[in-house]
Amino acid sequence: MKGHDKTSDVEQILKKTAAHTDEQMDIKEPSIHYFENMVQKQTEAWYKRLWIEMTCLWIIAIVFLSSLAISVMYTPLLFIGTQVISTLVVLLYFIKETSRTVASRQ
Fold first, then answer.
1. Per-residue confidence at 5, pLDDT binned at 50, 70, 90?
2. Rounded to an integer, what distance in angstroms lies between the CA atom of residue 103 and that of residue 95?
3. If you average pLDDT over residues 13-17, what whole number do you get?
4. Could you tell me which of 10, 28, 7 has the C-alpha nearest to residue 18?
5. DSSP 8-state assignment for residue 26
């Protein structure tokens, strides 16, 4: 029983010391409005960041889709332009080689 008495005495001393410490310390706990305002500010900041991120994603998507649409619309035009330019280059090369062979025969 002596061990139980010692535990009881230690518990009483700890309780008295804790109560004495609580009486001496001046703890000022913030009001509930402080925490509500903190939560509201964090929520507003989160929504603001969310809107900024969503706006950036929309801008990237619009640029990507616009470039895709432009490339699809102008791909036939680019293909035809490339064919015309290559035909002109081959014709000019043929004319140049023909004139050079005619000049070398004479």
1. low
2. 12
3. 88
4. 10
5. -
Distance CA 50, CA 57 (A): 11
The model's pTM: 0.45
Per-residue burial over 44-64, b = 16 or more CB atoms within 10 Å of its CB, e = otherwise: eeeeeeeeeeeeeeeeeeeee
Residue 1's pLDDT is: 46
Name the phi and psi angles at 87, rounded to 5: -65, -45
Region for 28 from its dihedrals, namely left if φ exceeds 0, alpha if ψ lies in -120 to 50, beta otherwise:
beta
Phi (first) and psi of residue 30, to 5 degrees: -65, 155
Which residue type occupies 43?
T
Residue at token pair 């332009």: 81
Of 2-6, 30-34, 53-57, 89-93, where does mean pLDDT reach its minimum?
Answer: 2-6
